[in-house]
From TrEMBL:
<keyword id="KW-0560">Oxidoreductase</keyword>
<feature type="binding site">
    <location>
        <begin position="100"/>
        <end position="103"/>
    </location>
    <ligand>
        <name>NAD(+)</name>
    </ligand>
</feature>
<feature type="domain" description="Dihydrodipicolinate reductase C-terminal">
    <location>
        <begin position="106"/>
        <end position="242"/>
    </location>
</feature>
<dbReference type="GO" id="GO:0008839">
    <property type="term" value="F:4-hydroxy-tetrahydrodipicolinate reductase"/>
</dbReference>
<feature type="binding site">
    <location>
        <begin position="145"/>
        <end position="146"/>
    </location>
    <ligand>
        <name>(S)-2,3,4,5-tetrahydrodipicolinate</name>
    </ligand>
</feature>
<dbReference type="Pfam" id="PF01113">
    <property type="entry name" value="DapB_N"/>
</dbReference>
<dbReference type="GO" id="GO:0051287">
    <property type="term" value="F:NAD binding"/>
</dbReference>
<dbReference type="InterPro" id="IPR000846">
    <property type="entry name" value="DapB_N"/>
</dbReference>
<dbReference type="InterPro" id="IPR036291">
    <property type="entry name" value="NAD(P)-bd_dom_sf"/>
</dbReference>
<protein>
    <recommendedName>
        <fullName>4-hydroxy-tetrahydrodipicolinate reductase</fullName>
        <ecNumber>1.17.1.8</ecNumber>
    </recommendedName>
</protein>
<feature type="binding site">
    <location>
        <position position="37"/>
    </location>
    <ligand>
        <name>NAD(+)</name>
    </ligand>
</feature>
<keyword id="KW-0520">NAD</keyword>
<feature type="binding site">
    <location>
        <begin position="75"/>
        <end position="77"/>
    </location>
    <ligand>
        <name>NAD(+)</name>
    </ligand>
</feature>
<keyword id="KW-0521">NADP</keyword>
<dbReference type="GO" id="GO:0009089">
    <property type="term" value="P:lysine biosynthetic process via diaminopimelate"/>
</dbReference>
<dbReference type="GO" id="GO:0019877">
    <property type="term" value="P:diaminopimelate biosynthetic process"/>
</dbReference>
<dbReference type="GO" id="GO:0016726">
    <property type="term" value="F:oxidoreductase activity, acting on CH or CH2 groups, NAD or NADP as acceptor"/>
</dbReference>
Length: 246
């Protein structure tokens, strides 16, 4: 399979390594320095594109891939405010896109456990819930896309919660978290690839589930597997469509 890498930073470079190991060829690599090469004709040399760029540039890149009618895997986070617009555009143009806030198998298992736990906790109102995420200091968006996915699943499954709010340590402070809100507490610490915790606390005890990425390898391998899965499909997908946890 020929792959176009849109965004050749920390993730793009590891994705390239896994793509080559799995027998694929990388035919285009885009960074801020060679954006003039991100053209419809160059994209058409690839079977699939993978975007790990920046929150502010992902939407433009998505439209360029739609123009080229090339299947696109989007790992970039921080653009989900425009998710519905992108979904509509993808479906009306009969092209294909798969997105996900986190491509690692471990986090996708964690998403499943989080949903099951949230449903169970409907019967235990003594517990309040909070989401915590820690990432490296170069991260441009807060909260992390993964933390948003976790918080939204809690809201969908735990009746007493209706919205999330975010506090980024040292930058934004929430004075009062209302009873129907899920606090996402974000921290930025050097060299942390991504740690997510869901914490249920009562007066007497706590229940915690936690995922710690030891490196970016799980995200990168997942992105290549997602591209292989998407190659001959048409439609709008989420990474959860690849997994079928019982
Ligand atoms: N879904 C998942 O599993 C994961 C998602 N992510 C997300 O992926 C994104 C990228 O992360 P990461 O690799 O760590 O970030 P980096 O900052 O290391 O890389 C971003 C890359 O995008 C390039 N870039 C800048 N502008 C554009 C543009 N207009 N078009 C294309 N590329 C551009 C940068 O170029 P230059 O270096 O020249 O500035 C750089 O190569 C983030 O949104 C992050 O949250 C990260 C890990 C896992
Ligand atoms: O920016 C990162 O590094 C990561 N971003 C994703 C997110 O926002 O959830 C996934 C992963 O946690 C690493």
């Amino acid at each position: 399979m020929n792959i176009a890498l849109i965004g050749y930073g920390k993730m793009g470079q590891i994705i390239e390594r896994f793509a080559l190991e799995r027998g694929h060829e990388v035919v285009l690599k885009i960074s801020a320095g060679n954006l003039d090469e991100l053209t419809v004709s160059n994209l058409r040399k690839a079977d699939v594109a993978i975007d790990f760029s920046t929150p502010d540039t992902a939407i433009k890149n998505i439209y360029t891939c739609f123009d080229a009618n090339i299947p696109l895997v989007v790992g970039t986070t921080g653009w989900y405010g425009q998710l519905q617009e992108i979904k509509n555009e993808c479906l009306s143009r009969n092209t294909s896109l798969l997105y996900g806030s986190n491509f690692s198998i471990g986090v996708n298992l964690f998403f499943h456990i989080n949903e099951v736990l949230a449903k169970i906790m409907n019967d235990y109102p003594a517990y309040d819930v909070q989401v915590e995420e820690i990432h490296h200091t170069q991260k441009l968006d807060a909260p992390s896309g993964t933390a948003m996915t976790i918080a939204e699943a809690i809201i969908d499954n735990l009746d007493r919660k209706t919205e999330w709010v975010n506090e980024l340590e040292g930058q934004t402070e929430i004075e009062v978290v209302k009873q129907d809100q899920v606090l996402i507490a974000s921290q930025r610490i050097e060299n942390i690839p991504g740690t997510h915790t869901v914490l249920y606390s009562s007066e007497v005890d706590e229940i915690e589930i936690k995922h710690t990425a030891h490196s970016r390898a799980g995200f990168a391998l997942g992105a290549v597997v997602a591209a292989e899965w998407l190659k001959n499909k048409q439609g709008f997908y989420n990474i959860s469509d690849i997994f079928n946890f019982k």
